[in-house]
Amino acid sequence: MDEIIRAEGIKKAFGSQQVLRGIDLSVREGEAVCLIGPSGSGKSTLLRCINLLERPDEGRVLLRGREITKLPAATLHAKVGMVFQQFNLFSNMTAFENCLAGQRRALRRGRKESEEKAVYYLSQVGMLPYRDARPAQLSGGQKQRVGIARALCMDPDVLLFDEPTSALDPEMVDEVLRVMADLKKGGLTMLIVTHEMAFARDAADRVIFMDEGRIVEDGRPGDIFAAPRHERTAAFLRRSLRDTRG
Question: Sheet holding 190-193: strands in order across?
Fold first, then answer.
């Protein structure tokens, strides 16, 4: 498999707080990689540095071997898509219009092709019947599925998910995870920050445990969950799995 994303030596601080302390990471085509770890470990900041929503203080990011760290962020967002915790839909637009906006503005796509893609991806995530609904008329799970469809309409090389279920009521989590599992089966390259341990264990090709701005452990889900090499990983998983059962 070809490597799509590579991050080398990524450091990021906010004031005196060092959030990322030299991250090296690669994602290959078709991989689903889950980032897990305690709150404040730098997972979301790493995604934002890869997508240039934040500029790394040090290090570089490569997309298919080409350094992108200093490119204008807008030129990258079509190729490295992002699905956010809080949906980030345009409240004055319908689900269909949300899926058209980026294609028309950023990609300069014609209306016919944009509409065809919007219909296709809304259908893929089960939201075509709600194409004319505005965000205020949708549940959290429905909003997130529209957010995923909107990102897919841009034909990204890789899709980043920043805790896509954290703002959802528990009964809505599964509908979003099912969509993500289907995308994985379809071969989409994904880098996912998640606190859904069962999803990371069952759906990911690799799991990366982060703590205090560093990658502590990187391996296959079966190895990470059954026999973590580091005590910090083991302690986090014990707490997380206990909380899930509770």
Answer: 80-83, 158-162, 190-193, 32-36, 206-211, 214-219
Helices (H), the chain: 43-50, 73-76, 95-105, 111-124, 140-152, 170-185, 197-203, 221-226, 231-245
Q: What DSSP element (H or E) covers 21? A: strand 17-28
The DSSP code for 15 is T
Inter-residue contact 13 to 64 (CB < 8 Å): no
Closest CA to 63 of 157, 164, 203: 157
Q: How far apart are CA 138 and CA 134, in angstroms?
A: 7
- The answer, as to whether pTM is greater than 0.90, is yes
pLDDT at 246: 46
d(C-alpha 143, C-alpha 138), whole Å: 6
Phi first, then psi: what are they for 107, rounded to 5°? -95, -10
pLDDT in tens, 38-79: 999 999 999 999 999 999 999 999 999 999 998 888 778 779
Pairing of strands 190-193, 32-36: parallel
* DSSP code of residue 67: E
The residues near 191 (Cβ < 8 Å, ≥ 6 apart) are 5, 27, 33, 35, 47, 50, 158, 159, 160, 161
Contact criterion met (CB below 8 Å) for 189 and 220: no
**CA–CA distance, 27 with 5 (Å, rounded to integer):** 5
Judge contact between 183 and 190, C-beta under 8 A: yes
